[in-house]
Known about the structure:
This protein is mainly α. It folds into 2 domains: 1-65; 73-156, no CATH class. It contains 7 helices and no strands. Helix 1 (7-26) packs antiparallel against helix 2 (41-59) and helix 5 (96-111) runs antiparallel to helix 6. The longest helix has 26 residues, at 116-141.
Amino acid sequence: xxxxxxRDRLIGLFCFAFAGYVWYEAGTFPTSDFDAVGPSxxxxxxxxxIGLASLVIxxxxxxxxxxxxxxxxxxxxxxxxxxxxxxxxxxxxLGFIPTTVLFLLAMVLYFEPSELKxxxxxxxxxxxxxxxxxxxxxxxxxxxxxxxxxxxxxxG
Length: 156
């Protein structure tokens, strides 16, 4: 597609429409007298982020794609699907933090183009810090029940 509606712009439009749908549907969630924030806050926050990102994708100037960019990367797609399936399978037995660390390590090491030694160092730090941050944010601050798994005694 070489016109105004390139592939990126169509994806941007689709994501913007999806964000609008999520925003609308989040407003239909039943509220509770016990929760001051309500169940629609987080979905609407995500819809806002998706909507803004889709606007950036839509409004940025399109660049001519090379022949390499036009062919889909099926290997990377299959890798993401398989690693995500492994994440789902291991989440309950291992727990949130160890499984998320392994998932992030697998993703960063596969998609980071730098030297392996540098990738491993950066990936371990990133995966551990981000996994603990996510656990503290969702598990402790927001009260989301996350599987403790093998760290059951430590996370009490």
